[in-house]
Amino acid sequence: KNDPAANQLIMFKEKTSGPIGIMTTSAGAPVEHKDTNTLNSRLIFNEYFMDSLTHTVRERIPERVVHAVAGGAFGYFEVTHDITHICKAKLFSRVGKKTPVAARFSPVVVERGGSDTSRDARGFAVKFYTEEGNFDIVGFNTPMFLYKDPVIFPTFVHALKKNPANNLFDTNSFWDFLTLQPETFHMFLLVFGDRGIPDGYHHMPGFGIHTFEVVNGHGSKYFVRFHFVPDAGIKNLRSEDAKKISSEDADYNTRTLYRSIANGDFPSWTVSLQILSLDDVKNARLDVFDVTKVLPLDEYPLHPVGKMVLNKNAVNYFAEIEQLAFSPGNLVPGILGGPDKLFEGRRLAYREAQHYRLGANFNRIPVNCPIQTKVLEYNRDGVPPLKDNGKDIPNYYPNSFNGPVPYKDHKRGELLQIFEEDPNNFEQARELYINEMTKEERSRLVENVLYRLGPAAKFLQERALKIFYIIHPDLGSRIEQGLLANGTKYDWNRY
Ligand code: HEM
Q1: 146/178 Cα distance (integer angstroms)
Q2: Which residues on adjacent β-strands are paired with residue 207?
Q3: Which pLDDT band, with edges at 50, 70 and 90, does 3 fall under?
Q4: How far is it, in rounded angstroms, from Cα 374 to Cα 81?
Q5: 197 in ligand 1 pocket by Cβ < 6 Å?
Q6: Which of 39, 124, 285, 323 is most open to solvent, judged by the fewest CB atoms within 10 Å of its CB?
Q7: Residue 115 contacts by C-beta under 8 Å, 6 or more apart in sequence?
Q8: Whole-angstrom Cα distance, residue 45 to residue 55?
Q9: Contact 346 CB / ligand 1 (< 6 Å)
């Protein structure tokens, strides 16, 4: 009875005393009672009918091509440790400083309406509304990504989403993709292990994945990876429990996030950095910019920098969560982004996606506006929303009429240019299997892999087995034994 997620409407009624006003059309005209019934009357003369019907059929916008399902909320980031010697972004300028944030958590593959307890990685996207504009970390709940080359993205989306012939998830395209890009196995071991189904977003960690280049006030470069560790601890669902939950409630993770915030139980994360100097980068024994790899914590320990707290639900989901537009290109002075090719590719992809999904003025949608700074851009017009559309300020640059001018920063720093090797990360996949997973987790990993690999074509099973054997002979042989023992037992099943 006291569940705010289930009782939102009842709570609305309780905080109001009777109807909140006279109903109107979208043009503001009061709706007369007779117009709420169209029988025996002319439809075209009924503005209520015309207005609501023609609007309803336009309510859907394109869903995100990936990460379509999500929960999200608002809150703040507070600096707890000084890092001004590393990074001059004003966001970090003093201990105790608070910056408003928006966060959105999302399985990658399922489509809108799908279950948020599917076995999958999760997006972990945070928008910091800083006084120097918005800074976005568009990360995952895994510390690594699947592949290094952004050219793979379209293939990845097609192979993992539904088969266009029958609109069904397809085991064969899934394993074909993975085995043709074997660098994906490192991340997939994590997703097929216990990390694949978080038990509530407040129990889910987040990682910026890319190694971001940052500069301090003197223009010296440093390199950082962002980590968000949930203060409530990491907790995950077992496959069987997730299956049960999802058959009853496809929105379990979204619901528990909403409910805990509405109940005043605010999820929080400790935000830390792995920090590398330019020398560390030069002397590293691995490519520290390789997104398919983790930076070992014993070599590059975590330095705490702050806390993120989510303490406010959206009042309207579509307006505030669906319309959020995150982008790796949203950077602020002092944070230059990742020098790797994947980061470069992403700077294009998100902007493109949001132009398509939300229109040319997506940054003028309130939830995307940099609320702590004044926007003085030369963009004008286009589809609404326009806000004040730059009022009467000159609309071209340079101009001789006091239009806005760029600032100068001689210490801004330039992104490193790096050479990227072909991916090769079986070593880290092996370390993950042997050193980081418990005996029980290894067994669950094998079981989860078998569920997915069992129904795949024989030649794909063989290709996958070869890779599992390279990662570790124990892993290979357990999966091989499982396949032999179970024959066709495993049906296609997203767990
Ligand atoms: C480190 C690798 C990556 C991470 C951590 C990542 C993470 C995410 C997250 C968290 C979202 C959902 C954002 C939201 O909540 O609105 C997202 C969406 C998206 N991602 Fe990625 N992604 C990665 C790689 C890529 C690559 C390589 C591309 C393409 C070149 C790409 C293209 C997209 C697109 C087009 C969207 C939808 C954006 C929108 O409609 O607003 N991503 N990604």
Answers
A1: 9
A2: 140, 227
A3: very high
A4: 28
A5: no
A6: 39
A7: 69, 246, 250, 252, 494
A8: 16
A9: yes
Q: Is the CB of 326 under 6 A from ligand 1?
A: yes
- Kindly state whether residues 240 and 265 are assigned to the same domain: yes
Q: Is 295 helix (H, G, I), strand (E, B) or coil?
A: coil
- Tokens read off for 495: 């767990």
- Ligand 1 geometric centre to CA of 347 (Å): 10
User: Do 174 and 249 have their domain in common?
Assistant: yes
* pLDDT (0 to 100) of residue 489: 52
The pLDDT score that the predictor gives to residue 486 is 75
Residue 75: φ, ψ to 5°: 175, -140
The residue assigned the tokens 């705490």 is 304
What burial class does residue 65 get, using C-beta atoms within 10 Å of its C-beta: 0-12 exposed, 13-18 middle, 19+ buried? middle
Instruction: Decide whether any atom of ligand 1 lies within 6 Å of the 286 Cβ.
Output: no
Q: Where would I find the beta strands (DSSP E) of 47-132?
A: 71-79, 98-107, 122-130
Tokens of 144: 């690594």
- The interface predicted TM-score (ipTM) is 0.97
Place of tokens 């589809």: 383
Q: How far is the CA of 471 from the centre of ligand 1 (A)?
A: 28
Kindly give the distance from the C-alpha atom of residue 328 to the centroid of ligand 1, in angstroms, as a whole number.
9
Q: What is the mean pLDDT of residues 54-78?
A: 98
Question: Is 357 near ligand 1, meaning CB less than 6 Å away?
Answer: yes
Q: Are residues 55 and 126 in the same domain?
A: no
Same domain (yes/no): 85, 45:
no
Backbone angles phi, psi at 332, to 5 degrees: -125, 160
Nearest CA to ligand 1 atom 24: 346
Strand partners, 124: 105, 139
Which residue's alpha carbon is at the smallest distance from atom 15 of ligand 1? Answer: 104
In a domain, 339, yes or no: yes
Provide the H-helix boundaries in 88-238. Answer: 153-160, 171-180, 185-192
Distance separating alpha carbons of residues 458 and 442, to the nearest angstrom? 23
| Owning domain of residue 251 | 71-368
Q: Residue of the nearest CA to atom 10 in ligand 1?
A: 123
d(CA 75, CA 200): 17
Q: Report the domain count for the chain.
A: 3
Together in a domain, 179 and 311: yes
CA 21 vs CA 31, 33, 315: distances in Å? 11, 14, 19
